[in-house]
Write a structure and sequence with these properties.
The protein is mainly α. The chain contains three helices and no strands.
Amino acid sequence: MSQEWIIDVLVDLRNFAGKNDLGKLVEQLDDTIHIAAAEISDIGQKSDVIERHGNKDRSVYRAHRL
Protein backbone atom coordinates (compact mmCIF):
# COMPACT_ATOMS: atom_id res chain seq x y z
CA MET A 1 0.00 0.00 0.00
CA SER A 2 1.28 3.41 -0.89
CA GLN A 3 0.17 5.03 2.37
CA GLU A 4 2.28 2.86 4.68
CA TRP A 5 5.16 5.37 4.56
CA ILE A 6 3.27 7.53 7.04
CA ILE A 7 3.67 4.86 9.72
CA ASP A 8 7.45 4.94 9.22
CA VAL A 9 7.42 8.71 9.71
CA LEU A 10 5.30 8.42 12.85
CA VAL A 11 7.61 5.73 14.27
CA ASP A 12 10.62 7.97 13.62
CA LEU A 13 8.89 10.82 15.43
CA ARG A 14 7.98 8.52 18.33
CA ASN A 15 11.58 7.31 18.60
CA PHE A 16 12.84 10.90 18.62
CA ALA A 17 10.32 11.81 21.30
CA GLY A 18 11.39 8.82 23.39
CA LYS A 19 15.08 9.72 23.16
CA ASN A 20 14.27 13.26 24.25
CA ASP A 21 12.12 12.42 27.28
CA LEU A 22 8.87 13.54 25.70
CA GLY A 23 6.73 10.85 27.32
CA LYS A 24 3.31 12.34 26.62
CA LEU A 25 4.22 12.78 22.97
CA VAL A 26 5.39 9.15 22.82
CA GLU A 27 2.00 8.03 24.14
CA GLN A 28 0.15 10.24 21.66
CA LEU A 29 2.25 9.01 18.76
CA ASP A 30 1.64 5.39 19.80
CA ASP A 31 -2.09 6.06 19.58
CA THR A 32 -1.63 7.85 16.25
CA ILE A 33 0.37 4.94 14.83
CA HIS A 34 -2.39 2.51 15.77
CA ILE A 35 -5.05 4.75 14.23
CA ALA A 36 -3.02 5.19 11.03
CA ALA A 37 -2.45 1.44 10.73
CA ALA A 38 -6.15 0.72 11.22
CA GLU A 39 -7.23 3.30 8.67
CA ILE A 40 -4.66 2.15 6.13
CA SER A 41 -5.84 -1.42 6.66
CA ASP A 42 -9.45 -0.28 6.25
CA ILE A 43 -8.57 1.49 2.98
CA GLY A 44 -6.85 -1.67 1.78
CA GLN A 45 -9.85 -3.82 2.61
CA LYS A 46 -12.15 -1.40 0.83
CA SER A 47 -9.88 -1.47 -2.23
CA ASP A 48 -9.86 -5.28 -2.21
CA VAL A 49 -13.66 -5.43 -2.05
CA ILE A 50 -14.04 -2.86 -4.80
CA GLU A 51 -11.56 -4.76 -6.94
CA ARG A 52 -13.48 -8.03 -6.44
CA HIS A 53 -17.04 -6.72 -6.60
CA GLY A 54 -16.89 -3.39 -8.38
CA ASN A 55 -17.45 0.11 -7.05
CA LYS A 56 -21.25 0.02 -7.48
CA ASP A 57 -22.02 -2.54 -4.77
CA ARG A 58 -21.43 -0.54 -1.58
CA SER A 59 -23.43 -3.03 0.50
CA VAL A 60 -20.59 -5.55 0.10
CA TYR A 61 -18.16 -3.09 1.68
CA ARG A 62 -20.54 -2.28 4.53
CA ALA A 63 -21.12 -5.96 5.27
CA HIS A 64 -17.38 -6.63 5.11
CA ARG A 65 -16.69 -3.92 7.71
CA LEU A 66 -19.25 -5.25 10.20
